[in-house]
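Re-running the complex after MR caught last week's input typo. The corrected sequence lines follow. Everything else is unchanged.
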Amino acid sequence: MSTQANRAQAEPESLQEISHDRREFLKQCAAAAPLLLAAISMAEGAAASTPDATYKPEEHYYGMGVDVNKCIGCGRCADACKTENNVPREPFYFRTWVERYVLTTDGETVVTSPDGGIEGFPPTISEKGILRTFFVPKLCNHCANPPCVQVCPVGATFITRDGVVLVDKDYCIGCRYCIQACPYGARFLHPVTHTAEKCTFCYHRVVQGKVPACVEVCPTGARIFGDVRARSSPLARFTRFNEIQVLKPQLNTEPKVYYANMDGEVR
Amino acid sequence: MTPDLVQQLSNVLHQVSGYIYPNEVELQWGLLVVVYPYITGLVAGAFILASLERVFNVKEVEPTYRLALLTALAFLLVAPLPLLLHLGHPERSFEIFLTPNLHSAMAMFGFVYAWYLAVVLLLEIWFDYREDMVLWARNERGLRKWIHLVLTLGATDISEKAVAFDRKAVRLITIIGIPSAFLLHGYVGFIFGSVKANPWWSSVLIPVVFLFSAMVSGIALVLMIYLLTGLVRRSFEMTCLDKLASFLFYALVVDFSLEILDFIHRLYEAEESIKILGTLISTRLFLSLVVLQALAGTALPLICLAFVSPAFGRRALVRFPEELRRLLYLASATLIQIGIFSTRWNVVIGGQLFSKSLRGLTVYKMELMGLEGFFVSVLLLAAPFVILYILVKILPPWKDLPAASVPEHAPGD
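Corrected-run output:
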């Protein structure tokens, strides 16, 4: 305080006035701070426990875009997913993971995904010449025609009105038929709950108007989340300006994860 | 999470060759799910054999009719157990009945099973045994009398008209029963055959192959039980055994042809999955598929039965003495059981040993202890024989004992 007072004496009158105003302002802020904090925490609490009251599922239809050229294989998406969704840390359970493809000049394709890519990838040491390498993030494709939903004997896995495939863990009997039926290896049996688990597009975040955790943390913007149908959504823009492929189209599952710049070797 | 599971999966991870999706390290359907189609196959096969006598009037196999029915019942009672034990939440299994997803093949299990158990097997056995049960109850005392009396459900009329009605009912139920037995096991095949994500399973032939392999295993089982119980009782008819062996041969020929058709079809079409499936057969499944299923379980008994049984006419190609014939039948039937169990193994486990990325293979580590372990499966496979023993004690299937001469009292009476 004393240094401030000395400085005030040395300063011209107008500056003193400003400084005084500033002090007043800060005082007022300090007084209002608890109120503000309370308001913020209330809003946060409300947001964490309930979806946005104005959220209307029928107004959305979600999908995800993946730009293979942008993925640098850092694995932050897979890591964030495990944190956000409390997925077991062991390297046998993934809602999303990153694969690395190394295409050699003699036509061989080597695919790896150590710990789902969370810890990154070892250097590509190959005796053969490398033609190309690239990373492909994988996740549940939230198919419009999902075989997992078809086979569930009790209807515990279902499509929401906004196009997300979910599992009701209080209803799932743990028969694992859905895991067998998924062509993409996107499902697993949770070792603690003994029920089927998979990517939910971070549904708890989406209904609050946020994007999935993997999209949020991707440093290069390789993942684009949004409405498939809305003309102005980032995803719609992504699918409009890129040539799009989906995984295993011959199985007629109608995936809603759209890949741009994807190599034919990916499956 | 159990550290055992983590340890087990870590071990598997080290034995993976090529690339598999990270979620594929854990194999989803283990030994219990191998046991399930094996058991239902035995049920369907034993029932179809029983039906031969009733519907197609094959008189030679008449002595096995009741035995086959009781065998089918004993195995059917155990059939849902491996599935139940395998569930992550067995306490929720009743939801399959309450809120079935009608688009799901698996949801139909409850209904197919209930239909087959209640409408087909129990009803047929009841009508077939009713007259005998009334007669037994009349001549017995103590617990046995009461058991048989209760089992008649109060229908004690054994007038000629009533018995004629029983016979008619049995015939009608058998006629309904044959398609039901086809449904029961064809349906199990469909559960696998309809998984388009899995090229090893996804085939329209799978339900048909399941059906004929069911007949093979069912006939072989009844033959084994008839032979072994015959040795104990010192009474069996060789014509019956010969006929059973002939039927076994015919069913095996059809089954083998279908398997070969499936194999050649896959090879000739050479779809995207052919490379990984080829590697699968020549490495991971070599013992169970090539050696046990194809050579020991099919080719060898096929050759043996072709020469030993009178499959091509009244006389066998090579005339063996009765004793040796019985031994060869027993050996063939045993080999067939090993072969059919391997078939189920190769479908269920084999279908999960390669990645759906078609780029790698994994391994299956069978546990010894635990619910999914070896010992539980052995127990489940032994349980039907215990049930069958009890069933045979309550409802003796031997026709050579006329109903009137049976009233031997239990030792305690």
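None of the earlier attempt is carried over here. Residues 2-42 of chain A form one domain. The radius of gyration of chain A is 25 Å.
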